[in-house]
Amino acid sequence: MITDSDMDAIFHALAHEARRRILDLLRDKPGQGVGELAQGFDVSRIAIMNHLAVLEKAGLVISEKDGRVRRLYLNAAPIQMIHDRWTDEYSAFWAGRVTGLKYAAEAAAQKAKTGKDAT
Q: Is the pTM of this model over 0.85?
C-alpha cells in the first residue's frame, strides 16, 4: 500500500526534468555507475548525486555496491502502484493494450520513415 507521503516523494522526484531523464537513462541501460550516468548531463557530478538522492528517497532508483562503483537501477514499482491506485482491473488491462498498440504504430511509422526497425 502506498501512502500519501510516499506519493508526495514520488511526484516531487518526477517533477524535475533532470530526474526524469535519469530514470530514462537507467531504464535504457540498467546498472550504470554514477560517473557514467553523470556524463550524459551538463551539470556537476554533485548535482547528479543530489538528484539521485531525491530519486532514491522516492524509491524510484535503487543502487548496489560493486567494488568502488555504485550501480544504479530504475525501480518502476512505485510508479506502478500510483497507476494501480487510479485504475481498476478492467481499465488497466485496456490501458496496457492501447499502450502496446501505440508503441507498435510508432515503430511502424519509424520503420516507414527510416526503413529500419526501431529497437
A: no
